[in-house]
Specification:
It is built from 7 helices and 10 strands. The N and C termini lie close together (11 Å). The longest helix has 12 residues. It has one domain: Alpha-Beta Barrel (TIM Barrel), CATH 3.20.20. With 215 residues, the chain is an alpha/beta fold. It has an 8-stranded parallel beta sheet with strand order 7-6-5-4-3-2-1-8. A two-stranded antiparallel ribbon has the order 9-10. Strand 1, helix 1 and strand 2 form a beta-alpha-beta unit.
């Protein structure tokens, strides 16, 4: 079975179409005003309409309140909620009870100790996303999509309690190595398929998916 691929931060009809055509397994949409990939609810609704039902739509938010999540869900009609902030296990439980959608929890990683955090979510999350933790010295760092790579060897031999994806600085040039080291069953990319912040490249999307699925 080939590695699954999530293209995150999509924001235009042509790049959504490119990801679908190239064989993406998940399509991610960002709802975080500080991000260059942030979507308005109106645009999210129009993009949602062109996604076939067999490809899960993932709504990324960061410490969103219930009112914001309700609006996001109404616009995008996502299949999965990706929580990329400091949401606690208790907060995940609240969100799942209220909205009834599967939850992907992002875990920021820079050292082995960070992987312990993943165990806190084994009873409330459905998927985990291991992403690079930005250093405190990084100005204007986002919770994700910074193009940073963490030490993949930290995941070597690990068997997380939940289905998981690898993220953080992945590109068509390094994704095969990342998969080989970590054994990742799925990978997530955003900045690695952009030719400018927030501007996805259809060609880079196709190249990344080919590289990941042939790894």
């Amino acid at each position: 079975m080939s590695v699954q691929v999530k293209i995150c931060g999509l924001s235009t009809p042509d790049t959504v179409a490119a990801a679908i055509s190239a064989g993406a397994d998940y399509l991610g949409f960002t709802f975080y005003p500080r991000s260059p990939r942030h979507l308005s609810l109106t645009l999210a609704a129009s993009l949602s309409a062109i996604v076939p039902s067999y490809i899960p739509k993932v709504a990324l938010s960061v410490d969103a309140d219930d009112t914001s999540l309700e609006a996001i869900i109404a616009a995008l009609q996502p299949d999965i909620l990706q929580l990329h902030g400091g949401e606690t296990p208790a907060r995940l439980g609240e969100i799942k009870a209220r909205f009834g959608l599967p939850i992907m929890k992002a875990i920021a990683v820079s050292e082995a100790l960070d992987l312990e955090e993943a165990r806190l979510y084994r009873d409330c999350a459905d998927l985990l996303l291991f992403d690079a933790k930005p250093p405190k010295s990084m100005a204007n760092a986002l919770p994700g999509g910074n193009g940073l790579v963490f030490d993949w060897s930290l995941l070597a031999g690990q068997k997380p309690d939940l289905p998981w994806m690898l993220s953080g600085g992945l590109t068509a040039a390094n994704v095969a190595e990342a998969i080989a080291i970590t054994g990742a069953p799925a990978v997530d990319v955003s900045s690695g398929v952009e030719d400018a912040p927030g501007r996805k490249s259809p060609g880079m999307i196709a190249e990344f998916i080919r590289a990941a699925k042939s790894a």
